[in-house]
Amino acid sequence: MPRRRITFSRNVFLPLTTVCRNRCLYCGFRRPMGDGCLMSPAEVEAILERGARSGCTEALFTFGERPEEVPGFGAHLDALGESSILEYCRRLCLLAIEKGLLPHTNAGVLEEEELRMLAEVNASMGLMLETTARVFAHEGSPGKVPELRIGTIEAAGRLRIPFTTGLLLGIGETWEDRRRSLETIAELHRRYGHIQEVILQNFTPQAGTGMASATMISTDEYCNTIRLARELLPADIAIQIPPNLADIARLVPCGVDDLGGVSPCSIDHINPEHPWPAIDELRQMVGDAELVERLCIYPQFIERGWYSPTIAPLVRRLTARLKEQYL
């Protein structure tokens, strides 16, 4: 019997801005606006070059949702000659492609035309559903209305964008809320076939936030949620957990397929106090399973041709490189 495979992507993490219209009670990513609140092209280029030297294949672009809605942020874009954060992100995605890394962008709630524009320069995209429930942790966060997030995921399906979504566990949702959230994702995938992975991320308290003293879910509850996801989700959707936040050795046997993006040269800017494990550490954590590197676009979507001509040469080149590595 062949060994079970657990996949991961080698990436660089590029938080273009921490300015965000949302005010989630658990979030330690959002920061007050000030000098340096928007990464410069030179900063991004330096990180991309470091990632390329480290063998990374993915450039993960993330930023606060709709930062232009925060008064004063537009001036920072103007200083770079940009009209919007999405146009700026598109420009930097092209730079990533030039440096040999496939872009994957998490931009928050987007309209279909915005998704279409970014899909031209991204191998995959993502948006955490988090939960279909209305929870207190999302008070003051207009982008966390479940219907809006479902609408973005559905629009990505219509556009055939390989997509990542997921749940944030322990922010006030119930077990039935998790079931409904997973059923919603499963139905969207049955309709469009575009969801490549579902992240089950455990909430971790961060100092200075409104939920700094909240309790995390137990490992047993986490394991049971993974098992529920495997029961409800179609078999071709990978279940992912974050290797820097979770007990990998105990949770992988519960039904985990993937460990997400792991960076050899940049921190997790969402959870900076939790460093990435080294690749050799991950190999030990997955036990008898085989740890296998993948691209940010999964093989089945490469086979279907669900990527733009802009990134096609790089997709082919990196696919060949990984195939040679795991022969």
Topology:
Blueprint: E1 5-15, H1 41-53, E2 58-62, H2 73-79, H3 85-99, E3 102-106, H4 112-119, E4 124-126, H5 146-158, E5 163-169, H6 175-192, E6 195-202, H7 219-232, E7 238-240, H8 248-251, E8 258-262, H9 279-285, E9 290-293, H10 299-304, H11 312-325
Parallel strand pairs: 1-2, 1-8, 1-9, 2-3, 3-4, 4-5, 5-6, 6-7
Helix pairs in contact: 1-3, 5-6, 6-7
Q: What is the makeup of the main sheet?
A: 9 strands, parallel
Strand content: 15-25%
So what's the overall shape?
Answer: globular
Q: Low-confidence parts lasting 5 or more residues at pLDDT below 50?
A: none
- What is the count of structural domains? 1
What is the CATH homologous superfamily assignment?
Answer: Aldolase class I
Please trace the helix and strand order, writing H or E for each element.
EHEHHEHEHEHEHEHEHEHH
**What is the level-2 CATH architecture name?**
Alpha-Beta Barrel
Query: Termini, distance in Å?
Result: 18 Å
Tell me how many strands there are: 9
Average pLDDT taken over every residue: 94
Give the fraction of residues assigned to helices: 25-40%
Under the CATH scheme, which class? Alpha Beta
- Structural class comes to alpha/beta
| Total helical segments | 11
Give me the CATH fold name: TIM Barrel
Q: Radius of gyration, Cα only, in angstroms?
A: 19 Å
